[in-house]
Design goal:
Blueprint lengths: L10 H14 L6 H10 L6 E7 L2 E10 L4 E9 L8 H15 L4 E7 L3 H9 L3 E6 L9 E7 L2
Parallel strand pairs: 3-4
Antiparallel strand pairs: 1-2, 2-3, 4-6, 5-6
Bound molecules: coenzyme A.
Length: 151
């Protein structure tokens, strides 16, 4: 059902990724330029993964090694029509195997403090809150960081 790629995105994957971000973020018409900006800033060791249903990309994840012993699930988005089907969990499993291959001991994820979907998802998958970052998403919108030990 799902497979991943860690090289540069195919045109089709880019189009599917934008279609997902248009639904899961507030960027709407800016989704393509936001994604382009993120891809242009990809650093060494960062990877993009796609989960496909048939040949359609419906779940996407960007992994970024942190400076400590953890791998960041930096972006994680599943198309609303395909949520609650286990696709986010499948992508996290891939993140765990990538983290282990990189000799990392934990996964981390961040989101805003009222993002109940992601928080519910993270708790269900064994993450625990460990840090709040003030004003991460602009004035008065704090980020919560969560970690999951994978050893
Ligand atoms: C968070 C997200 C990636 C989860 O993806 P998903 O494919 O729906 O997740 P799964 O189907 O693997 O869910 C696994 C478990 O997580 C929890 N969960 C998932 N969605 C949830 C929700 N909306 N509310 C509460 N818990 C939720 C549930 O316990 C679920 O298990 P269940 O369906 O058996 O009850 C998806 O909701 C999403 O893309 N959200 C919008 C984008 C976003 O906010 N990304 C993060 C930005 S930092």
């Amino acid at each position: 059902m799902a497979h991943g790629k860690n090289s540069s995105l195919r045109k089709k994957d880019f189009v599917d990724y934008v279609a997902v971000l248009e639904k899961t973020t507030r960027w709407k018409k800016n989704a393509a330029s936001m994604l382009t900006g993120r891809l242009e800033q990809m650093k060494k060791g960062e990877q993009v993964w796609v989960a496909e249903v048939d040949t359609r990309g419906v779940g996407f994840m960007i992994l970024a090694p942190n400076h400590d012993d953890s791998l960041e699930v930096d972006w994680l988005d599943v198309h609303p029509d395909f949520q609650r089907l286990g696709i986010g969990t499948l992508l996290l499993k891939k993140a765990v195997s990538v983290a282990k291959a990189k000799k990392k001991q934990a996964l981390s994820i961040h989101t805003w403090e009222s993002n109940q979907k992601t928080l519910g998802f993270a708790y269900k998958n064994g993450f625990e809150k460990y840090e709040t970052i003030k004003n991460f998403y602009g004035k008065r919108k704090d980020a919560v960081r969560l970690k999951k030990n994978i050893l």
